[in-house]
Amino acid sequence: MKGGHGVPVMALPALGGGLGRSPYDSKTRNMTDSSASVNSAISDPLQIAKRTIEVERDGLDVLAKALVEGTALGQTLKDTITAIRSAPGRVIVSGMGKSGHVGRKIAATLASTGTPASFVHPAEASHGDLGMIGTDDLVLALSNSGETRELADLVNYCARFSIPLVGITSVAESSLGQAADHLLLLPKADEACTVTRAPTTSTVMMMALGDALAVALLRDRGFGPDDFKTYHPGGKLGAAFSRVSDVMRTGAMPLATLDTTVAEVVAFITQGGAGTAGIINGGQLVGVITDGDLRRHIGRDLLAMKAADVMTRHPITVTPDTLASDALGLLNRKRIQVLFVVKDGAPVGLLHVHDFLKEGVA
């Protein structure tokens, strides 16, 4: 789609021109009356809710089919990703009403997945917030009709300062559609509420397209779990991407040698408070002794025995770089409560199932 930088500024006041029509004028009334007669056949709330989801799902199906190699939308999406990657600044997302709410979510998703982004309200932009948009930025504007009046100054601003403009709209011939350097044209789909034509399917499609952009960009950037954890240090998401090094116990660990007596090992286990002791040889972890190991060897001479006679050899271990969630999964699968953390075979930490609970890893 031809860019807005070649569109005369005087051509843009048409934005919003189609919004003055009453939804109850004669042309629209005929359509909504017809839709109402169809919808009136369904009165059960659950059936209406189910039908709403089905219509929105159909919209997503149409959108997915339009995002394939060789289609206009597929090619534009690839061009948009290249444009965003090439922009030295941020992605500035803007939209009015329901499109604005979707735009805020898209901006938040982009920012949290490695693409710096901010939301600028189009009405506030006309009263000074245009100053938030730099010439290194790229603007992503959302308007289902493409004729949102409040976007006019923002579109003019992009044209004046040669700021790349990406438009998401359902109408290619609209003012936004004609002004956009990259037009992400939503395929035709019915709104879930045909009586009022309230934004439903269209906003779902916008949201999905924004998610598609964000995920494609993060994969293109090589954005991984460690990067995601940087932007999500709190809550369940942050905990899910914690590493063992973030959770493990360090400092004095319950460690003994092969020749240590079981009586001394019991003292180490008691002092350690984790129900286990590690057995080392030449600095390497070669075994563990747990309460279970002691019970299995109970007898008159147990306390005089050596650690090497009682220990479980080749213990299960993890490294500091292991995802905490993976380590917890290992504990659950093996039905154990404690793991030693090793680096190059040497013990550097200890993990107890309670440590995961304290950090919110589940």
Q: Mind sketching the topology for me?
A:
Blueprint: H1 26-39, H2 45-66, H3 72-86, E1 91-95, H4 98-112, E2 117-119, H5 122-125, E3 138-142, H6 152-160, E4 165-169, H7 175-179, E5 182-185, H8 201-221, H9 225-231, H10 235-240, H11 244-247, E6 255-257, H12 262-272, E7 276-281, E8 284-290, H13 291-296, H14 307-310, E9 312-313, E10 317-318, H15 324-334, E11 338-343, E12 346-352, H16 353-359
Parallel strand pairs: 1-2, 1-3, 3-4, 4-5, 6-7, 10-11
Antiparallel strand pairs: 7-8, 8-9, 11-12
Dominant shape: elongated
Strand content: 15-25%
Number of domains: 2
Q: Tell me the CATH superfamily of the largest domain.
A: Glucose-6-phosphate isomerase like protein, domain 1
- Helix content, binned percent: 40-55%
The CATH class of the largest domain, by name, is: Alpha Beta
GO molecular function, one term: isomerase activity
InterPro entries: CBS_dom, CBS_dom_sf, GutQ/KpsF_isomerases, KdsD/KpsF-type, SIS_dom, SIS_dom_sf, SIS_Kpsf
Keywords: CBS domain, Isomerase, Repeat
Family: Belongs to the SIS family. GutQ/KpsF subfamily.
Description:
By secondary structure, the protein is an alpha/beta fold. The chain has two domains: 4-223, Rossmann fold (3-Layer(aba) Sandwich), CATH 3.40.50.10490; 244-359, CBS-domain. It is 44% helix and 15% strand. It has helices at residues 26-39, 45-66, 72-86, 98-112, 122-125, 152-160, 175-179, 201-221, 225-231, 235-240, 244-247, 262-272, 291-296, 307-310, 324-334, 353-359, and strands at 91-95, 117-119, 138-142, 165-169, 182-185, 255-257, 276-281, 284-290, 312-313, 317-318, 338-343, 346-352. The strands form three sheets. The chain has a five-stranded parallel beta sheet with strand order 2-1-3-4-5, sandwiched between helices. Strands 6-7-8-9 form a four-stranded mixed beta sheet. The protein has a three-stranded mixed beta sheet with strand order 10-11-12. Helix 2 (45-66) crosses helix 8 and helix 4 (98-112) runs parallel beside helix 8. The two termini are 48 Å apart. Residues 1-38 have low confidence and may be disordered.
